[in-house]
Specification:
binds magnesium ion, 339 residues, 4-stranded parallel beta sheet, Rossmann fold
Length: 339
């Protein structure tokens, strides 16, 4: 199969629509990362997504809809606080998990009674979703466990020959996946941190909890995605705490002396420190949103440049950095996850 990358035009949108209604998958841009989209009502299309990504079949998908789509077609109950959150943040990088009507394919939620719904802000995503006018399930458009894609080229690198069409909407500004927030209970609970922070949600509706899975208890995990090693670049990775600049540098020298192509990924303020010491660096940036938006791009660049990637954790850990740290730790395999 030939994989084409096309800019978003009336012609490419109509081609994408035909592929979707034929049961195929199309890669689409969003403001967070690119997604691999298929018809949420079509069992075959949904199964095809799991297959082409190599995604574990217990990790449910997010249904994407345009901003005028009637949510009550697919969700069963819409608590008043969820409406407030939609008014404040959507379209945007926030996914809400509702009780499902069960109208979409049962493969979407992998047996859960809930459905994750996202209304992306990206103009190209909205144009595509209006064109098809059905819910589109779209996980990040990367081979399972690999770094999520923030450009059409990244998608091409993972899926060349496996999907027919990538709609090119430019580089994703957000850079990390949407915040996933459960709205099936009394209060919102964040299942995956992202650009819409716990503080932002709490400011809007008074309270917001954060779910931390207890891997050891054997309890059924609410958001199965949290269990898996994710976002990993294909090189050796070593993560150091924000205070351990010396440790990072020592390891850098050791790896270099063994002939390994080695880089240090760090926030902007440390770049000159490492450079002065003679190390090659990758600059994560200085503001929260810069670090979110550059992270995956740099991890993908690193796997081309490096045998060994050393990262130093950013010093700031609140707000958007909760999401950035979550991705960084998973990419470096330093959290308790299934492999
Ligand atoms: O920004 C995003 O959310 C991107 C773009 C393409 O929209 N999509 C994305 O999809 O990141 P994916 O499949 O890579 O991640 C979906 C996450 C997983 O952690 C999954 O476990 C969780 O959402 N999820 C999906 N449905 C769920 C449900 N019914 N209940 C709890 N968690 C759910
Ligand atoms: Mg993903």
């Amino acid at each position: 199969m030939k994989t084409q990358i096309k800019p978003i035009t009336p012609e490419s949108l109509s081609e994408a629509k035909n592929i979707i209604f034929d049961g195929g998958v199309v890669a689409i841009p969003t403001e967070t990362v690119y997604g691999l989209g298929g018809n949420a009502f079509d069992d075959r299309a949904v199964q095809r997504i799991f297959e082409v990504k190599g995604r574990p079949n217990d990790n449910p998908l997010i249904a994407h809809v345009h901003s005028d789509y009637d949510l009550l077609k697919i969700i069963d109950y819409d608590p008043p606080y969820a409406k407030k959150l939609r008014e404040a943040f959507l379209p945007g990088p926030l996914t809400l998990v509702y009780p499902s009507t069960g109208k979409v394919s049962p493969y979407v939620s992998c047996g859960l009674q809930t459905l994750a719904v996202r209304i992306p802000a990206h103009a190209g995503a909205q144009a595509f979703l209006r064109e098809v006018d059905i819910p589109i399930v779209a996980p990040s458009a990367n081979i399972s466990k690999h770094v999520s894609p923030t450009s059409a080229q990244h998608v091409y690198e993972d899926f060349e020959g496996k999907i027919p069409l990538i709609l090119d909407g430019g580089a994703c500004e957000g850079g990390i996946e949407s915040t996933v927030c459960d709205v099936t209970g009394e209060v919102p609970v964040i299942l995956r941190p992202g650009l819409i922070t716990r503080e932002m949600i709490a400011d809007m509706v008074g309270v917001c909890e954060e779910y931390t899975p207890d891997f050891k208890s054997g309890e059924k995990v609410k958001s199965p995605g949290v269990l898996y090693k994710h976002y990993a670049p294909r090189c050796k990775t070593l993560l150091f705490g924000a205070e351990d600049i010396e440790g990072a540098l020592k390891t850098y020298i050791k790896e270099k002396n063994m002939g390994k192509r080695t880089f240090i990924l760090c926030e902007e303020s440390l770049v000159s420190v490492f450079k002065t010491a003679g190390a090659d660096t990758l600059n994560l940036g200085s503001t929260d949103s810069e670090m979110a938006s550059r992270l995956y791009e740099l991890l993908r660049e690193a796997e081309k440049l490096c045998d060994v990637l050393i990262a130093v954790e950013p010093r700031k850990t609140d707000g958007i950095m909760v999401g950035v740290m979550n991705r960084l730790k998973k990419a470096f395999g330093s959290v308790d996850v299934k492999h």
